[in-house]
Amino acid sequence: MCNCALAESYRTCLHRTCLHRTWKTLACNESMKPDYDLFGKTAFITGGSGGLGNAISNILAARGAHVTIFARRPGPLEDAKNEIVRNCVDVDRQEINAVAVNMADASAVSEAFRSQPRIADFLYCCAGGNHAENGFFIDLKAAQLDSCMTNNYYSTAYAAKAILDIWVENDKKPTGIDMPNNTTTGPKTRKIVFANSAAAFLGLPGSVAYTPAKSAVRALADTLRFEVLRHNSSSTTYTIHIAFPADFISPGFVLEQDTKPDLTKRIQGTDVATLAELEKKFPSSENVARGIVARVDKGDFIICEDSLAASLLFTNMIGLSPKRGLGIVDSLLSVVMGCFVVPVLRRRWERMCREDGSNQSR
Ligand SMILES: NC(=O)c1ccc[n+]([C@@H]2O[C@H](COP(=O)([O-])OP(=O)(O)OC[C@H]3O[C@@H](n4cnc5c(N)ncnc54)[C@H](OP(=O)(O)O)[C@@H]3O)[C@@H](O)[C@H]2O)c1
């Protein structure tokens, strides 16, 4: 089957799956707190019409939050909004909004955030993807390097900057003056969650535009984690979280199957014929979303909940990020990964690249 036909079959099946999806079941999962603890809280979710952003939006709405989603295309935004409304625990007490905006336009993002009826308590940055920018460096156009950085790094950085500007300004004002719809009183916890990618841990051949953009997001999160400490006070606590999901099923992931080089697919294990086979190998957006939200609730900075591989790879790239738990497991694993696993992985990928090159030149 050619790539396009395969992707078409993926799309048809995925659409069917989406239509029959029972999002309310999210409410029965462990990440759903029984006391609807997010009543009165507001979540902004960029990329809220996509796989992961939509799933996170549904989880938060099922816990009582007001939710605003942001993306560019009005059609998917409207569909996603309707689904989130259906998942609200008490639709009369919750407000769900959808805003069409290019997150890579800094002033439009700031305006979109400021025009909302409430200040967000949580910002989930999920906008991104690379289905239009897969390929080897030699085959990519400069414009693709640009758009991949724009849609992944700048779309995230501008969102974080816009919300932090609003929060810090708001901290200087008496409660309720500027945003009368915000009903939360008492100390506030404000969270920025970066839905990044395990690609930030790996230079995956054929994903050469995406990895630098996701590495930049990680650098932003690491740095911002320090800087927000400057803004903490007795009334406001700022926290930063970053998730590194590995591959999962989503509309963007389905589209990507059209554009990935075969070598990338062989390395990733996405060289399969049908959506059903992909679904067997990779988790759903909903499962990944549940893991991320649960870890954000626990206060984790580094989140590799869905993938053991990502979790292990992090230990080889800790840098100034805080180690997880007491740090003992991460410290021990970093030695094992650095001495044994990573050298084997690196040599395997080098061999695969050489073989791919000689096959192409035949
Ligand atoms: N799926 C995976 O295997 C995987 C693995 C690791 C990490 N990730 C990352 O996880 C995040 C979500 O992935 P996904 O697979 O759920 O993606 P998806 O299904 O393709 O959804 C992406 C969302 O981002 C929005 N978006 C993209 N660029 C935007 C921009 N410039 N301005 C505003 N909205 C924008 C899209 O809407 P519009 O196109 O309408 O704007 C859509 O709502 C992405 O950052 C992705 O890189 C995905």
Automatic annotation (TrEMBL):
Signal peptide: none annotated. GO terms for cellular component: endoplasmic reticulum membrane. The keyword Transmembrane helix applies. The chain crosses the membrane at residues 325-345. SUPFAM superfamilies: NAD(P)-binding Rossmann-fold domains. Keywords: Membrane, Transmembrane, Transmembrane helix. The keyword Membrane applies. InterPro entries: NAD(P)-bd_dom_sf, SDR_fam. GO terms for biological process: 3-keto-sphinganine metabolic process; sphingolipid biosynthetic process. It comes from the Eukaryota. One of its GO terms (molecular function) is 3-dehydrosphinganine reductase activity. PANTHER family: 3-KETODIHYDROSPHINGOSINE REDUCTASE (PTHR43550:SF3). This is Short chain dehydrogenase/reductase family oxidoreductase.
